[in-house]
Amino acid sequence: MSEPKTIVVLPGDGIGPEITTEAVKVTQSAADRAGLALTFDEHLIGGAAIDATGDPFPAATREAAQAADAILLGAVGGPKWDDPQASVRPEQGLLAIRKTLGLFANLRPIKVWPELADASPLKAERLAGVDLLCVRELTGGIYFGQPRKTESDEGGRRALDTLVYSDWEIARIVRLACEAAQGRSKRVVSVDKANVLDSSRLWRRVAEEVAADYPDVALTHQLVDSCAMRLVTHAAEFDVLVTGNMFGDILSDMAGVLPGSLGVLPSASLGEGSRGLYEPSHGSAPDIAGQGIANPIGTILSAALMLRYSLGAPGAAAAVEAAVGEVIAAGQTTPDLGGSLSTSEVGAAVIHALG
């Protein structure tokens, strides 16, 4: 048995506690089979943390995350805290943990299982062969730009947000995308708005400079509006997409239409080292919280990414992904995917498929 790895679990809000419970069970089962020793340490984030401490990212959570090998997160937010005028909001916990841990890259693999083709509103022929990776820059751009302000004068109200990117921020995310592409089909599409934005024109120049170090990777550029259209009409043409914070946020969520549900989409947020934050791509779904029908597959697949990128167990990761594929193929899914199983029953089915 290897030296124990510590995973900080942040269930968060809404369905977060339900889906992380199943992901932890699957992770432990896969780790046991691989001879990997794990410890799980649960802490607060988001709305639950605001209620308990007044802070969406409390000091105890921060310290635990900084000491952990990996972090598994459920979801944050909900109507209880959904006041746009509030000075403290659950989503601030997500931004804070990403910044604290230096997690500058969000990876979202998007794959369409043939068995779920009917769950998507798109025609089956548009879904065939879709297997792409969205790489989104996480700690720069308009979400973090300074200055930002809202002001009023006799002419009315005015708000300002600034979109700022430095060359080093662009270079490291494009480099990560190129390295990811080397293990895939060696094609990267860099997405921007270079016909309008100076920040995007810098993005293009730096992307070209970085890609020159990867002669086996084909880099092309696409405007974000064109890319959005082609994700719906010709998604199978994409291998790796790399883009800035806001564009990546929108495009990766939009791509959730491809497999038919955000409930099956995992994500990994990575920095320079091996520590990462792993969470499903969906939200906290407060309307179904506590009903036992939340889809845990996105969280379970996020745990598989955790096994691969942070815990050094690619074999265990592949086993979990294969088990999820078996469960989906057998129709052992929650109601959002046309099945009749509960959250915990799907988790149990994945563990059974692990063998």
Structure description:
It is a single chain. The protein is α/β, with parallel strands linked by helices and about 350 residues long. It folds into two domains: about 1-105 and about 265-355, 3-Layer(aba) Sandwich (Isopropylmalate Dehydrogenase), CATH 3.40.718; about 120-260, Isopropylmalate Dehydrogenase, CATH 3.40.718.10. Helix content is about 40%, strand content about 20%. The protein is built from twelve helices and twelve strands. A ten-stranded mixed β-sheet has the order 2-1-3-12-11-4-5-10-8-9, with helices on both faces. It has a two-stranded antiparallel ribbon with strand order 6-7. The two termini are about 20 Å apart.
Features:
single chain; 355 residues; alpha/beta; Isopropylmalate Dehydrogenase; ten-stranded mixed sheet; two-stranded antiparallel sheet; 12 helices; globular
Gyration radius, rounded: 20 Å
CATH homology superfamily of the largest domain: Isopropylmalate Dehydrogenase
- Structural domain tally: 2
Mean pLDDT: 94
Unreliable residue stretches? none
Please identify the top-level CATH class of the largest domain: Alpha Beta
Order of helix and strand elements from N to C terminus: EHEHHEHEHEEEHEHEHEHEEHHH
Number of strands: 12
Approximately how much beta-strand content do the residues carry?
15-25%
Identify the CATH architecture of the largest domain. 3-Layer(aba) Sandwich
- State the secondary-structure class: alpha/beta
How many alpha or pi helices?
Answer: 12
Q: What distance separates the N and C termini?
A: 20 Å
Overall body shape: globular
What characterizes the major β-sheet?
A: 10 strands, mixed
Largest sheet, spatial ordering of strands: 2-1-3-12-11-4-5-10-8-9
CATH fold group of the largest domain:
Isopropylmalate Dehydrogenase
Helix proportion range:
25-40%
